[in-house]
Each structure stands twice: as structure tokens, then as C-alpha cells.
Amino acid sequence: MVEKPLGINLTEGNYLDKALGDAVNRIYVALNRRHYSTFRELDRLINLDSGKRIIKVIDQENQFAARSAGFSTQITENWMFANSIHLIDILRQFGRGKIINIEQSTKWKSMTTMKHQVSIAFDSGDIGIYECQWNEAGPWSVLVSKENSNWLMKPLEKLTQIFESSGAIDLTPKSDWDTNFKPGFRLQAEMMIAKMKDRESKIVSFKDALSTMQLVHDMYES
Questions:
Q1: pLDDT per position as a tens digit, 178-214
Q2: Where are the domains of the chain?
Q3: Which pLDDT tens digit goes with each residue over 39-95?
Q4: Which CATH architecture has domain 2-220?
Q5: Following DSSP, what letter does each residue of the chain receive, concatenated?
């Protein structure tokens, strides 16, 4: 199991894919948000019926803070692969079917701050909306909307169902694993162990993670 991303950008990811050959089938990637108890509960709830869904993801990234933390310019210039990948991966997981269209726009607020917006259409009829505030403050959040139902993860460790007329209810699962360990880490470790023992597992494969890197590239390609 390796840390994400698979290389600093898609070019490196594709190079590794070819260079490693069949060995990629034994490599798994740590995308721990998929293993959050809130993520799994929301996935269960939105799959109770086949209705179309809108997935809105709010991202915030700070390249200057990353550089201050010691990351190289090469890495911070590809920071969407290093960190935004967590949220963009959620779009792939909750959006059903094949992506048929991606539209993006960038609005500069100053010489260093901007808002990057992307809309994604899936052939299932689902819609993905992504907004990232670059070099500004702001929390991560995910909002999934279906007819008469809205679910919010803000922060991602908390799940709330929002009703238009009657407020909201907390649906955050009680999870000792997400309380006693960094959220998602314990289940991710269990999934890796299960894979090593040839049992059913939802650990993220190399190819699966590379598909998310492809989406990151497509969403930020100018």
C-alpha cells in the first residue's frame, strides 16, 4: 500500500503504470476518505433508490502553506494531485456511470488567489459540481442532493441530512475506529489485510487511483 498520489502528476502516474507492468496489480493506494464511516453511510443512503443526484464538492488548497511546510515547488505546482485528489475522488465514487462532459472556469480574485469551478456530467444523469478556493481560507465539504433529500458532510467526518422545512438531523455513525484512530485509517488497514488474505476488500487499486488522477488532470487541464 502506497501513499497517494501515484507520482506528482498524471504523466508520472502513467509512466509508473507502464513501467511496473503486472506489478501494479499488487499495489494499493491510501485514499482514506473512502473508508470514513460518514462516506460509507452516505453511500448507503444515496443508493437506496436510483434517483439522479447532484454532488457538490467544496475544496480549499493553499500552495503557500504547503511550501512553508517544506514541499518543493514541483510538488506545490501539482498540489491538486497531492491533496485535492481526496475530494475529486469523491466525485468519482458518488457520480454514477461514465463522465461525458467536463466544463471548467477560473476566476482570479487577486494575483495569488482564485476560484476554480468545474461541472461534470455523467451518462447516468448525475451531475458533479466542484469549487476550489486557492490560497484562501475555507473548509472542505460535500453536499449530495436528490429529490426531496440533501446530505451534507461538513466537515467530512460529520454527516447531516438537511430538510427544506424542518431543519437537519445528525446521521454521523458512531465509529470507535474513526474516533480512536485518524478517520478512515483503521478500516483502510483492515481492507489491506483482507486483500492480502484473498478476502473481499474495498482497498483502492492502482488502476482505480490512476483513474482519479486522470479526472484531476481533466478538471485542471487548461
A1: 999 999 999 999 999 999 999 999 999 999 999 999 9
A2: 2-220
A3: 999 999 999 999 999 999 999 999 999 999 999 999 999 999 999 999 999 999 999
A4: 2-Layer Sandwich (3.30)
A5: -EES-SSSSHHHHHHHHHHHGGGGGG-EEE-GGGG-HHHHHHHHHHTSS----EEEEEEEE-HHHHHHTT--HHHHTTHIIIIIHHHHHHHHHHS-S-EEEEEEEEEESSSS-EEEEEEEEETTS-EEEEEEEETS----EEEEEETTEEEEESSTT-EEEEETTTEEEE-----HHHHHSSTTHHHHHHHHHHHHTT----PEEHHHHHHHHHHHHHHH--
